[in-house]
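As noted in the main text, all predictions were made from sequence alone. Below is one such record, for Toxin-antitoxin system YwqK family antitoxin.
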Amino acid sequence: MKKVVLIIAMLFTCVFAKAQKEHKLFYDNGIVKEVGQLNANGKETGQWKYYHKNGKLWRIGSFANGTLSGDVIVYHENGLLFEYGNVRNGKENGRWTAFYNNGNFWKTGKFKDGKAKGKWKFYYEDKNALLTDVVRYKNGKREGKLKRFHRNGKLQNTGRYKDGKQIGKWVEYYEQGALETFGFFINGQQEGEWKRFYEDGTLMSIGIYKENFETGEWKYYHKNGRLNAVGEYKNGKCINEWLYYDDKGNLLKKVKY
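Prediction:
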């Protein structure tokens, strides 16, 4: 009985082996580009390896009847780890983690059916792994509050997304915490009054945006608070007469646009 089982197993192995065909593709320079197995239907099966043009491993993953599934590892051209995570039915699922090409941590977050979801964290490229962005995703698009940080850990930007577009009030801060800019977005475009400040809190500029372009009268100020320039915009371009002043309030020139 054992001999019969062994013979059947050997026959099955032989048939299975014949049903598979090794696949290799090369770059023009002769370096292997990809290598793996094809099933009887000519679709990828089992483990596949892909290579950079310099011969270093690029990606390794497994296929089932032509569909990528399971753990996937991707490498930079210099051989260092780029990212890793899980794929289900050809789409990213679960947590994925990525690294810069110097080996330092870059970002981490989760996917569902190939689309980013939930909280994602992004980091600066230096070795200290300092946080740069914290933002949530829904169906692959940014959703909810964004926080962006300076390298010293202090808040740089804050605002909200809806369906991947910026909405509501957005605020930007200098590295030491002073207010730099604030204004509003509607459906991903700057709208309404925007203000920008010097680091000491003095107003630098004030004006209106319409559909992402400066419009109407804008005023710019010197650091001592005196008027620097005043004029009008239309669709982001200067129009009509602009007046320019020195930091003592003296008119320097008039420019017609």
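The longest helix spans residues 2-19. DSSP finds one helix and 20 strands in the chain. These features were considered when defining construct boundaries for the mutagenesis experiments described in Section 2.9.
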